[in-house]
Structures are given as structure tokens and as C-alpha cells.
Amino acid sequence: MRCFLAVLGLSLCLGCSWGQRKAAEAEPSFRLAVVTDLKGYLEPCGCTSDPLGGIDRLAAQIKTLREGDAPLLVLVAGDAFFDEAPLEPARADQATRNAKTLVGILNRLEVSAVLPGERDRKQPRQTLESLQAAADFPWLSMESDTNVIIENVGGLAVAIVGARKGADRDAIRDAVGTARERADVAIVLVDGSRRDANRIGAIEGVDFIVQGGLDQDAVMPPRPAGKAWVLHASRQGQGLSVVDVYRREKGDPFADQSEWSRSERSAQLDRQIQELAAKIDAWEESGDIDPKDLAPQRARLVELNKERAGLDRPVAASGGNAFSARWIELRKGSPADPEIARLMGEHDKVVNEANRVAFADLEPPPLGPGDVAYVGSAACGACHQTEYAWWRSHAHGVAYLTLQQRNKEYNLDCVGCHVTGYGEPGGSTVTHNLDGQLQNVGCESCHGPGAAHVKDPEAPIVRVTPESTCIVCHNEQHSDLFDYEAYVKTLVVPGHGRPVKTPKPR
Ligand code: HEC
Ligand code: HEC
Ligand code: HEC
Ligand code: HEC
Q: CATH 3.60.21.10 in the chain, residues?
């Protein structure tokens, strides 16, 4: 049977690969849901154009998977609860509350195992003990380099091996060896580099490796390492990798039947083929290449084309072990689990209130010699009425409301960029904002502190605001579309930076 597109002579693959369908017909032996480098993220900040992630969205996916036709193992590797170690003392309380909420949510998701990362393990002992006490799931490799748990899934014994950062390879080999005596499938959870994963892949008996520790946004499709397959799932809960595992033969290596891998490899080959073909054309045209040197390049092109054509052919129906992986990105429109969303909302309220009380007396640094105090935008509005009216209706003028609507105005991860003069001498703190005058991204965020100019308008104040002023807040993580020229243009309007249009005399 051939794909109808191929019969029609089209090379465009719609992802209906015969091999994949063949595999999907039978029920998987079990299914993996893989999350890597979560780093304590409950949700994305919401600042960017397409915020990815949200543990409530992750929960909705896991719920659906649990209702599916195969037993599910949820595996978490790499820094799971913290993104910083040691914690800044002022942030420790918020970060620890965050980790505790996350543990509670992972309990509800019935996570099978977590391999904490180095930043997790470096938290104070007391913090870790209380988090572990609250967890219903095993934490791997906390006491030693490596340890093993065996899960019974759908009649198969699956060994889950932890390998913390820098774990001794012989210890991992021994652990895998012992595990294999009792288990049908072995999965190693790693906190480390690509190279660490490759080393573990070289150990006999490893089937899958869950790659924590890369701490990168770009997600990798399944990647071979020895006879094992490395699984990855971006970071900060931006998505999850779901792997259907078909275990049919004892000890056989698993074959990758994922459309995900096929399409990535196809795209990669297409690029390579195009580049090499263009180079060969150019060489031939210029004529200044030795035919002896051209032949191997032509041979390589043939090889690449052969591999590319192979990817369009259906995967041979194999009776052996196989898996099919897919990537589920958690976007704005992805469904969210309402119960988990409610817990997150409760968490935000608790953190907000705790910080409001804990930092009630936190004053900004005092003014040094030559420093000028912040006064707030309303004081500027007394003279600059048109500018003030413009600002009130601009996003900057409601930046604090954005946080208040989410119970995040006292959240240490948020407040700094949604207020004016944060942490500056005579400026604001998480709780102090001149009775509201320094809430929002005010005039002085761009024009600098204005006390002197307000007192005496002859006193100079910054007029032109360079890019360096903006990117304190408009950085890559929080303003992905930021382009200074384009953004600043939208600020310079009649009434602010340009004269107010007056009706032309008739
Ligand atoms: C007492 C009235 C008054 C207040 C209050 C006031 N300004 Fe001004 N401002 C002026 C006058 C007058 C000028 C000079 C005339 C002009 O260029 O419009 C000026 C000029 C400016 C300029 C242009 C400077 C330049 O070099 O061209 C900026 C920017 C500015 N003000 C920002 C602010 C900000 C920010 C605040 C609040 C912190 C503020 N002003 C408060 C009266 C005031
Ligand atoms: C103190 C932090 C801060 C600084 C400094 C800052 N911004 Fe912003 N900016 C924000 C925040 C926060 C928002 C979003 C507010 C909201 O909608 O809640 C924003 C929104 C904007 C928007 C609206 C974007 C949209 O999609 O509607 C523009 C345009 C903008 N900023 C331009 C600038 C430029 C240009 C500069 C430098 C001259 C600058 N900002 C400096 C924090 C800042
Ligand atoms: C490093 C500075 C920074 C931090 C920290 C920050 N923000 Fe923002 N935020 C921005 C900027 C800049 C924008 C505007 C981005 C743009 O339009 O390009 C923005 C926009 C937003 C928006 C979109 C507003 C809208 O209506 O379009 C939301 C929501 C938001 N932030 C919430 C948060 C929350 C919640 C946190 C804490 C978890 C946070 N921000 C932390 C800088 C920051
Ligand atoms: C996000 C940054 C930003 C904020 C916030 C902002 N400005 Fe400006 N302002 C600018 C830029 C950019 C210009 C144009 C500078 C130029 O190229 O001349 C400007 C120009 C001005 C000028 C000089 C031109 C004129 O209209 O006379 C004044 C006065 C001024 N702003 C006042 C204010 C006041 C008052 C506020 C608050 C109500 C404010 N600005 C808020 C960025 C900002």
C-alpha cells in the first residue's frame, strides 16, 4: 500500500505515514508523559506575544492521557522546583511557597517519579525535607548518585533509574544491570548535558533516557544515544513529550516510528540537499574545481537523496519493539484543568498577601548626593496635561492594574517592571509606591526622576529616551516582539512628543 500522495507523484507528506498508523492500530504497552527542566514554573508570566506553558494546561493533557487506552507514567527530570540556588534571601519565602504548591499539584497529577536537578538539591536541607514529606511521588538520586524504582505498568516491569548531575557512570551501569534483572524496560532520568546522556546511552540495557539539565527552549525530537533514545521536553513546562511504547520483544532495541522525528529529519535533509546541490552547481559553473574533488560531493548528494526518499516510504511493519513520540506545546488556547487553575489562583493570593505583610516596611534606598527623587506621573500631569492624558490611556498607564487583576502586584517576579523607579534611590519597592503614585510605568520610567524639574521647570529633564532605557523591562523573556524603532514610534504622538493637531483655519 502506498500513500495516495506518493502515487500522485507528490512528495509532500501529510503525516499520514503508514508505519505510524500501523503502530497506532495496536494499543501501546504503556505511555510516557515527559516533562523536563520545569524549574518551579506554575505558569508563564504572560508578557510575551505567545506565552507557552501553565501547569493547569499540563494537567488537562495528563488527565486526557489517563483516560486513554494505555497505562501512563509521568516522568519529570532536571530542576523541577527551583530556578535559582542558593536563593536570594528576600526571595526564599516566595520561591519555597511556589515549590510547595507545585509539589501539591504534581501529587494530583500522580507523577511517577521526579529526578530533581542540582538547583533543587542545593536548597536548604530543611526546605527539601518539608517538600519531600509533602510529596506522594519518589524523588530520585537524593541520597546517592543513582537509585532505581520499579513500576508495574500494564503487566510490564519498568525500571526508572535516577542519575543526578555528575553521577558516577559505573554506579549507573550497576544500577541499570540490577534493574534489568527484574525489569522489562529501563528508563534513566538524567540531570546533565547531551554528552552525559550519550554516555548513559552507551550502557547496555538502557531503553530510554529522559534528558533533564539542558535548560533550553528548543525541544528535541527523540535522539538516538547508543541503543537508547533520548527524550526531551523543552523547559518551564512549555509542553510535554508523549511517548507511546510498544514493547513486543524481549531485549530488542526500540525503533523510532515517530512522525515527529521523520518530519524533523526530512526538513533537515531538504535543507542539506538544497545547500549541497547549489554548491555543486556553483562549482561546476566556475569550473575551477578538480573533478576528483567533485565526485565525493556528488556521491554525498546521492546518499542524502536516498535517505530523504526513504523517509517518504512507509516504515516497514516491524514486529519488534517500537515507540512513537509526539510533542504537545501548551499554548494560550490549550485547555486548562479548572481545579488546578483554581489552586494556582489561591496560591497567587496567598503569595501576594504574604509579601504585602513581609515587605510592609521595605523602603527604597535613600537618596545619595546628586540623586533626584521620584514624584509620580500625576505631578507631571499638573503642567503636561496632554502628555498625561495620553499616558493614562496607554498600556504603560495600566501596567499595575494588569498585575492587580492577577493578584500579582506584590509578586517579586512581576512588580519590578510594572511600576516606576523600582529599587532606585527615592523610588519604589514591592510595597512602597508613594501611595500609588509610582504604580504603573510612569513618565519617570523613561524621563528619569523628576523632583527637581517639578520644583523648577528650568531644571533639565531627560527628553530623548534611548533603547537602553526600554530594555531594562523590554527584554527577550518579557517582550519578544520588541523593536526599539517601531515601539518608540507609537509613543511619539500628538500630545506627547508632537504638537497637538489644531483644526486648520478655513
Ligand atoms: C510646573 C510645571 C511642570 C511640571 C510639574 C513638569 N514639567 Fe516638564 N516641563 C515644563 C516646562 C515649562 C517645560 C519646558 C517647556 C517645554 O519644552 O514644553 C518642560 C519640559 C519637559 C520636557 C522636555 C525637556 C526638553 O529638554 O525638551 C520633558 C521630557 C518633561 N518636561 C517631562 C516632565 C516630567 C516627566 C515631569 C514629571 C516628573 C514634568 N515634566 C513635570 C513644566 C513642567
Ligand atoms: C519600567 C519598565 C518599562 C520601561 C522602562 C519601558 N516599558 Fe514599555 N512596557 C512595560 C510594560 C510592563 C508594558 C505592558 C503594560 C501592560 O499592558 O500591562 C509595556 C508596554 C509597552 C508598549 C505597548 C505594547 C503593546 O503591545 O501595546 C510599548 C509600545 C512600549 N511599552 C514601549 C516602550 C518603549 C519604546 C520604551 C523605552 C523608551 C519602554 N516601553 C520602556 C514596561 C516598560
Ligand atoms: C523584566 C520586566 C518584566 C517582568 C519581570 C514582568 N513583566 Fe509583564 N510585561 C513586561 C513588558 C515589557 C510587557 C510588554 C511586552 C510587549 O508588549 O512587548 C509586559 C506585559 C505583560 C502583560 C501583557 C499585558 C497586556 O495586556 O497585553 C501581562 C499580563 C504581564 N506583563 C504580566 C506579568 C506578570 C504576571 C509578571 C510576573 C510573573 C510579569 N508580567 C513580569 C515586562 C515585565
Ligand atoms: C515609555 C517611555 C515614555 C513614557 C512612559 C513617557 N514618555 Fe514622554 N517621551 C518619550 C519619548 C520617546 C519622547 C520623544 C522624545 C523625542 O524624540 O523628542 C517623549 C517626549 C516627551 C516630552 C517632550 C515633547 C513634548 O511633548 O513636549 C514631554 C514633555 C514628555 N515626553 C512628557 C511626558 C510625561 C509628562 C509623561 C507621563 C505622563 C511621559 N512623557 C511618559 C517617552 C516616554
A: 18-142+219-257+315-329
Q: What is the CA radius of gyration of the chain?
A: 29
Distance from residue 455's CA to the centre of ligand 2 (Å): 27
pLDDT-derived band at 153 (thresholds 50, 70, 90) equals: very high
Give 401-418 pLDDT, tens digit per residue: 999 999 999 999 999 999
Whether pLDDT at 7 is above 80? no
**Pocket probe mutation, ligand 2, options 441, 444, 483, 492, max atoms within 8 Å of Cβ:** 441
- Domain(s) labelled CATH 1.10.1130.10 in the chain stretch across 366-498
Residue nearest to atom 19 of ligand 1 (CA): 457
Q: Which residue puts its alpha carbon closest to atom 13 of ligand 2?
A: 396
| Lookup: cell for 360 | 510592609
Whole-number percent of the chain with pLDDT over 70: 93
- 18-142+219-257+315-329, CATH topology level: Purple Acid Phosphatase; chain A, domain 2 (3.60.21)
**Residue 21's pLDDT band (cuts 50, 70, 90):** very low
Distance 460 CA to ligand 1 centre (A): 8
CA distance linking residue 284 with residue 270, whole number of Å: 21
Instruction: Calculate the CA 318 to chain-centre distance.
Output: 35
**Residue 389 DSSP code:** H
CA distances from 394 to 46, 391, 443, 502 (A): 18, 5, 11, 22
Q: Does any ligand 1 atom lie closer than 6 A to the CB of residue 454?
A: yes
Q: Is 30 exposed, middle or buried (0-12, 13-18, 19+ CB in 10 A)?
A: buried
Residue range 366-498, CATH number: 1.10.1130.10
Does the C-beta of 387 come closer than 6 Å to ligand 1? no
- Interval 356-382: pLDDT, tens: 999 999 999 999 999 999 999 999 999
Ligand number with the minimum distance to the CA of 453: 1
How far, in Å, from the CA of 446 to the mean position of ligand 3? 17
What integer best gives the mean pLDDT of the chain? 93
Chain segment 69-100, per-residue pLDDT in tens: 999 999 999 999 999 999 999 999 999 999 99
408 touches ligand 3 (CB under 6 Å): yes
For residue 89, give the 3-state DSSP assignment: helix
Decide: 401 in ligand 3 pocket, CB within 6 A.
no
Which protein residue's CA is at the shortest distance from atom 31 of ligand 3?
47
384 in contact with ligand 3, CB cutoff 6 A: no
pTM: 0.90
DSSP state of 405: T
